[in-house]
Design a protein that fits this description.
single chain, 346 residues, mainly alpha, Dna Ligase, domain 1, 3 domains, two-stranded antiparallel sheet, 14 helices
């Protein structure tokens, strides 16, 4: 083994360390350069120019740039939330972010999105109310949009007393329910004033729309809307509406219990029922009380209303919902119903 003088070994060590440091420095510089390029690209360009479909997102009061960035990334609108936060902070836009509902797409740049959420012009000036939404669900959607305080829409509905302005409304029957206008607030997309929103104005729009959409000379209106409201909760496919409507009317006219879970869920404000829930005697428990519940349990769309008006006659007396695809499975007898339960509701 050859001998290497100590002085030479130290010199070699210094050269090796110096080379390593230079290498690390180059990597850091390269990474910083790459990050800068990526950041500038994200600021000026959408991360997926091929996706132009608009996606709604909500900014809540008090949300920080970091909060908004996480929301945008979770919605698939931006690729890197830290780039968004960095841009907002570098442009001193933190205090200019507006609460409300906005729309964007993956093709929009961070700069464009930032401009959108810091201008009232970017706020959506419409609100979509889906078919089958209850008054409580409408209230939750309005509160989520920061248009009202939670419970405000429900309170306005309960205080409603303009029945004379709407000939189709039946005050005596409707005022006997806990939420009088339930079922008659037509689901649709409505124009709203985001800067000066009024629950009363939206209610007027929805009631006027209901009167326009409802077929002329509709008899037994309150009962029709009540059945339609149950269809929205019980049947998940449009082609099942007329068949389920036929079963409901047939069972009711034959003096059978309707045995509809949705009416109890509505009263209890629950998503699933227990055996004890089914035993509780109340006006909304169609397992213990015959006939229809006191009133509608949702606000039905026109397809459900037409199905309630024009039920389909079949030999069926029973149905269950297939949890896999939402299709109704029908039976003509209790034995058949039990067989279906064993097959589809395991």
């Amino acid at each position: 083994m050859s001998y290497i003088p100590l002085s030479r070994r130290k010199k070699t060590s210094k050269i090796s360390t110096s080379t390593t440091m230079i290498g690390i420095g180059c990597l850091i510089v390269a990474y910083m350069l790459y990050s800068s390029i990526q950041y500038n690209h994200a600021v000026k360009n959408g991360y997926d120019p091929s996706k132009n479909k608009k996606v709604s997102f909500v900014i809540h009061k008090g949300d920080s740039a970091k909060d908004v960035g996480k929301t945008l990334e979770a919605k698939g609108l931006i690729e890197n939330s830290s780039y968004f936060t960095k841009y907002i902070e570098s442009e001193n836009l933190d205090g200019k972010i507006i609460a409300g509902e906005f729309e964007s797409s993956p093709s929009m740049s961070i700069k464009t999105i930032a401009t959108t959420i810091t201008s009232s012009k970017g706020l959506k000036n419409t609100i979509a109310i889906p078919e089958g939404f209850s008054v409580k669900q409408i209230d939750e959607r309005l509160a989520d949009r920061q248009l009202i305080e939670p419970g405000e829409f429900i309170d306005t509905v309960k205080k409603f007393d303009h029945y004379n302005a709407y000939p189709l409304l039946q005050k005596q029957q409707m005022s006997a329910t806990n939420i009088p206008l339930e079922g008659f607030l037509f689901p649709d997309t409505y124009s709203i004033d985001t800067g000066n929103f009024s629950s009363s104005d939206l209610i007027d729009q929805m009631l006027k729309n209901f009167e326009k959409k409802l077929p002329a000379n509709t008899a037994q209106l309150f009962e029709i809307i009540t059945v339609a409201s149950m269809l929205e909760k019980e049947a998940r496919h449009d082609d099942d509406f007329p068949i389920v409507a036929g079963i409901i009317w047939k069972r009711m006219n034959s003096g059978w219990f309707l045995n509809i879970d949705a009416t109890i869920l509505y009263e209890l404000n629950k998503k699933t029922l227990t055996k004890d829930d089914l035993k509780q005697d109340s006006a909304y428990n169609t397992y213990t009380r015959k006939g229809l519940p006191p009133g509608p349990i949702s606000n039905p769309g026109i397809k459900a209303i037409l199905a309630a008006l024009n039920p389909k006659k079949t030999s069926h007396w029973f149905y269950i919902t297939n949890p896999k695809d939402g299709k109704a499975i029908y039976a003509d007898s209790n034995d058949g119903q039990n067989r279906n339960r064993g097959i589809y509701l395991k």
